[in-house]
Amino acid sequence: MKRDLGILAYGSLIDDPGDEIATLTVEILQDGIITPFPVEFARSSRTRAGAPTLVPVTFGGTFIPARIFVLHERISEQEAGHMLWRRETRRNGQDQNSPTFSNPNSEEVSIRKLTGFHGVNTVLYTRAVANISPLTPKRLAELALNSARRTEIAGKGRDGISYLMAVLRNGIRTELSGAYEEEVLRQAGATTLAEALNHIRP
Predict the structure, then answer these.
(1) Closest CA to 166 of 135, 197, 132
(2) What's the CA angle centered on 56, arms 52 and 62, to 5 degrees?
(3) By the 8 A CB rule, do 154 and 202 touch?
(4) 54 within 8 A of 35, measured Cβ to Cβ
């Protein structure tokens, strides 16, 4: 199969690529694929009520398992970049195009690319700036629990606890993930993340 263009998934994109990307994916590569950069729960996401999400980091972090969504050959690199940006920023609609390949500031998501990655000619991925400080398990747990208390996302799986559960379910572990999980359980007075979510969710 010809593999010209793909999208690298290393966080929630694995389970939830969105309708646009899912419809145009012809193959999913998984075996032996690791992010070419270290990743950590280092960004408080606006679209997840402040919950910690995985982003590439300069210091610390872990190289984690990832997947490549190989796209249909009729999709151009520019079209794929716009789709990925819309998915990551939750801006739906074909008229919402991205500042593709721009340099991000603390509030933006940019689209970057890898060349010849795991047999795919061009692989696009998102890069957002880390903005959680201090980056400690205690702070991550506070952000996750606060997001789960937000009524506007309650029950929609977009809170920090649900995000952490999905990441762990996909076999992803980072430098902080173990202590982060333990801190969520401690602060929620729970023995499992599912129990913690039930305790906290309004």
Answers:
(1) 197
(2) 90
(3) yes
(4) no
Q: pLDDT tens across 65-94, in order?
A: 999 999 999 999 999 998 998 888 876 655
Judging by beta carbons within 10 Å of its beta carbon (0-12, 13-18, 19+), is residue 62 exposed, middle or buried?
middle
60: three-class secondary structure by DSSP: coil
Cis ω on the peptide bond leading into residue 134 (within 30° of 0)? yes
- The 10s digit of each residue's pLDDT in 133-186 is 999 999 999 999 999 999 788 778 899 999 999 999 999 999 999 999 999 999
Give the orientation angle of helix 160-169 with respect to helix 137-148, to 10 degrees. 120
Q: What are phi and psi of 81, to 5 degrees?
A: -60, -40
Burial class (CB in 10 A: 0-12, 13-18, 19+), 145: buried
